[in-house]
Amino acid sequence: MRAAVVHGPGDVRIDELPDPVPGEGEVVIAMDWGGICGSDVSYWRHGGSGTAVLKDPLVLGHEVAGHVVRVGPGVTGVEPGLPVTVHPARPVGAAPDGLGGRTNLHPHVRYFGSAALHPHTDGGFSEFRAVPAGQLRPLPDGVGTRHGALAEPLGVALHAVGRAGDLTGRTVLVNGAGPIGSLVVAAAKYRGAATVIAADLAEPALEIARRLGADEVRRLGAGETLPEDVELVFEASGAPGALGSVLRATARGGTLVQVGNLPGEPAPAALGELVTREITWIGSYRFVDEITDALAAMRDGLDVDPLITHTFDLADAAAALAVAADRTSGSSKVLLRLSEAA
């Protein structure tokens, strides 16, 4: 089978790998679609993502969907032909005390397309992938594999929104309208927010946020600024330099949910308003099982299609990564077509 494999910085290849055989408790999925995430771009650009550094070649991709084609021994209730996406996380070992089911905070997780552990955990940017049956999430009626590949990032957005509590009737600011920020817009509207304001530097990103439900947009750096005194703010840019203005936009006594990944090394940031405005600053990391909620939301009518700006064949994975990495390309979610049947 063919797979998109990163070998080092700037070096992604379409390699021929052995077709997988399902082991005990596994199925084999014929992959249809894969969405490119910022971590995939980082592995390709830098040979690592955060603290995870490539030691061996790695099959990229954790936003995937396809159809079951083979069922291994010990698997029941799953038939060939079933359309599925995949929960990409598999915790390793016992969880520390006190997590209360928050499996996303487990210290050791095998995540699709991740070099965090060694040997690395290959992802799903391949024609086939063997997967433990417990990680399958069947697609509901009306949700095809093209949209099913976006259940993972929508799950990230729904988890972030859930960290803020009940959004019914509230006004929300989302700073950063990249793929996750735009999905936070959609998730906030889905969860009942009355007004959602999206802010970004780029007009194409703001247009996508509009199409995903933003009631108002602010183009920063073009004569517009963040609004004032918003009770609930989601910071989705991950830019330390933006934190000062985002904290100032948050109302006194308000809440800021940090969903954009901040750097793992020291970076300057103006944080004084965190104290003087008594802001509650909440982190949000991946998701527990909100990928299942994401599928239900899409079944119920949440349309993620505006997020998809580009599609490429698997053979053109390098070009797809370059477009996803280029903020001037107007790209938001870039999809790889992983099979001719997709």
Percentage of β-strand residues: 25-35%
The total of beta strands comes to: 20
Q: Write down the secondary-structure element order.
A: EEEHEEEEEEEEEHHEHEHEEHEHEHEHE
- Overall pLDDT level: 97
CATH superfamily of the largest domain: Medium-chain alcohol dehydrogenases, catalytic domain
Structural class: alpha/beta
User: How many individual domains?
Assistant: 2
Shape: globular
What is the CATH architecture descriptor of the largest domain? Answer: Alpha-Beta Complex
Q: Total number of helical segments?
A: 9
Largest sheet: 7 strands, mixed
Helix fraction bin = 10-25%
According to CATH, what is the topology of the largest domain?
A: Quinone Oxidoreductase, Chain A, domain 1
pLDDT < 50 runs, ≥5 residues: none
Through-space gap between termini: 16 Å
CATH class of the largest domain: Alpha Beta
> How large, in whole angstroms, is the Cα Rg?
20 Å
Cofactor: Zn(2+)
Organism: Amycolatopsis acididurans
Family: Belongs to the zinc-containing alcohol dehydrogenase family.
Domain Alcohol dehydrogenase-like N-terminal: 23-141
